[in-house]
């Protein structure tokens, strides 16, 4: 089968996604639209002050789908001295952990792959001192500022290295 320029050859909903940290004040946290494109100001989440939305629909939809579970964690991160920009990897890790905790690790309907089937390259991460230092820093942030909002969820360092490895090896954006 021959493909032409512009043909869609694969399409799949992302398992998790997040607005990039450097664009957190410029894009809707649900649909990723820019206020320049919509012609409106972004609506700031009153709970965390971090998530922003292009419409009340996006705000309500995101609150229903995922933000309710992460809102207090984002508020803790936003007010705990880590600065106004929450690293994208932390946001994605929170969303991955929420999804894993909920037992919702659906397979992609197109590829049949699941999050568990992704490569983590743990040995490579553990052997790289600068990446390991960053992972340890993110782990300390998550355990001190985020997991207090999830009392039934325990996160050991080994699982976190696997999550970060899968995230770093398989993220697109």
TrEMBL record:
Transmembrane segments: none annotated. GO terms for molecular function: zinc ion binding. GO terms for cellular component: nucleus. The keyword Metal-binding applies. Residues 28-71 form the MYND-type domain. Keywords: Metal-binding, Zinc, Zinc-finger. This is MYND-type domain-containing protein. It comes from Hypsibius exemplaris (Freshwater tardigrade). The lineage of its organism: Eukaryota, Metazoa, Ecdysozoa, Tardigrada, Eutardigrada.
